């Protein structure tokens, strides 16, 4: 396998582990990701679409499904009524925090067969990749 193949299979492994965690909370991976994206502060729908790599229409459909479960809510921005902000509800916040905590606890298990030095290297590289991508949680809307 070449480098691209290995990255593909690493992606599959991570996605499968994440999907398993999400299923334990009766969420799809996309619903859980959406909740985690807005768990700490409301976000603009346009920002979320761009950050999650979704079309605005696909995001709206995801939000519709998640909103029906009373996990998120939409509102117009106070600064610009044309801008729609997405917030997590109290129920959604509890669920998002639980999924996020479980994911950050269990996802590193994909590297459990690596020795301690290799695990630290993977953490360093993953941090550099995420920081360079601009998709980290600290990115403001």
UniProtKB/TrEMBL annotation:
Domain HTH marR-type: 1-131
Protein name: MarR family transcriptional regulator
Segments passing through the bilayer: none
SUPFAM superfamilies the record matches: Winged helix' DNA-binding domain
Secretion signal span: none
Species of the source: Nocardia fusca
């Amino acid at each position: 396998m070449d480098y691209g193949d290995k990255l593909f299979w690493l992606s599959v492994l991570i996605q499968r582990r994440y999907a398993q965690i999400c299923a334990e909370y009766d969420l799809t991976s996309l619903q859980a990701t959406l909740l985690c994206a807005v768990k700490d502060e409301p976000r603009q729908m346009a920002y979320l679409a761009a950050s999650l790599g979704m079309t605005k229409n696909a995001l709206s459909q995801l939000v519709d499904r998640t909103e029906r479960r009373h996990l998120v809510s939409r509102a117009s921005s106070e600064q610009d009524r044309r801008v729609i902000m997405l917030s997590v509800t109290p129920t959604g916040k509890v669920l998002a925090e639980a999924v996020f905590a479980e994911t950050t606890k269990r996802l590193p298990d994909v590297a459990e067969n690596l020795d301690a030095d290799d695990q630290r290297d993977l953490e360093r590289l993953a941090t550099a990749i995420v920081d360079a991508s601009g998709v980290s949680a600290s990115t403001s809307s």
